[in-house]
Design a protein that fits this description.
2 domains; D-amino Acid Aminotransferase, Chain A, domain 1; Phosphorylase Kinase, domain 1; eight-stranded mixed β-sheet; five-stranded antiparallel β-sheet; globular; alpha+beta
């Protein structure tokens, strides 16, 4: 087994010249730090949600999925520890851009808006309230940082400088198109997708391909639609619950202590509930 990367959540194995295996662990990170506690079933939930969205958006843009069936994996990966949490994918030339899209004003976007009326340098109308739906979904890209570092917000113009205007424009348009289709669907299932981030690569023919993970509770803000109220922060299905708990309990990022069992259990249930609402399937 040739492991080529171990990130905050995913392990990546090199299979051959054109395939990789992505394995999603039960690790969880917050504020760019990997926490010492595992969240049961988290990896399987993330893998299943991504697989669902990859299939749902294949009419908009190609994706990197070859198979999530363990029987299609190389023999050494046909083991219980890889079952349900792994994805065989095509190798791509990954683009050095995090494609962030914001449909609602929250988090760092809300903090920026309160300060100067902008989000990532984009001027917005006056009078918006916290968690309000934006007039149009915003493409607010960033650079990809190394593990432990922070991504840096960049403008659309800077994106075009890095990868070229034609590709930069396509990246923006596909990001927003995928988000809008999925956000509309999720809302019909009782989930507001406030914001998310995508990663894209290029295949051997130079075609744009959606990769990594898609619209999971790790890469997105998921809010329950039935309790949504403009003007305040929202409860969520994602790891915002963990972030809020850490803030309230004076968490030490230099020497993080294990999470209480109740927090671990609640987080696991939130991830599973999001999957079941979106897919209509029992986990």
């Amino acid at each position: 087994m040739n492991k080529i990367s171990s990130g905050k959540v995913r392990e990546i194995y090199d299979i051959d010249e054109d395939k990789l295996l992505l394995v999603v662990s039960d690790r969880i990170s917050a504020f760019d730090v990997i926490l010492p506690s595992l969240i049961p079933n988290k990896g399987k939930v993330l893998n299943k949600i991504s697989d669902f969205w990859f299939d749902f958006t294949k009419d908009i843009v190609k994706n990197h999925v070859i198979s999530t069936d363990i029987k299609d994996f190389p023999a050494e990966f046909q083991k219980p520890e890889f079952e349900g949490r792994s994805m065989l994918v095509k190798k791509l030339k990954m683009l050095p851009i995090e494609c962030i899209v914001r449909g609602y004003i929250t988090g760092s976007g809300w903090a920026s808006y309160k300060e100067n009326g902008t989000v990532c340098g984009i001027q917005l109308p006056a009078g918006l309230q916290e968690s309000e739906k934006l007039p149009d979904a915003l493409f607010t890209p960033s650079t990809k940082a190394d593990l432990g570092d922070h991504d840096e917000n960049i403008s659309f113009e800077k994106t075009c400088e890095i990868i070229g205007e034609e590709l930069g424009t396509k990246l923006r348009d596909k990001t927003i198109e995928v988000y809008k289709k999925c956000a509309e669907y999720a809302l019909s299932k009782g989930i507001i997708i406030a914001d998310t981030k995508f990663e894209f690569g290029l295949d051997e023919s130079g075609e744009l391909v959606l990769a990594d993970e898609v619209l999971t509770p790790d890469s997105s803000r998921f809010w329950p639609a039935d309790s949504y109220v403009v003007g305040k922060s929202q409860s969520s299905f994602d790891k915002q619950y963990i972030r809020d708990w850490l803030k309230q309990n004076n968490w030490n990022s230099e020497n993080p202590s294990p999470l209480p069992e109740e927090v671990i259990s609640t987080t696991s249930k939130k991830y599973i509930e999001a999957y079941e609402l979106l897919t209509g399937k029992t986990f």
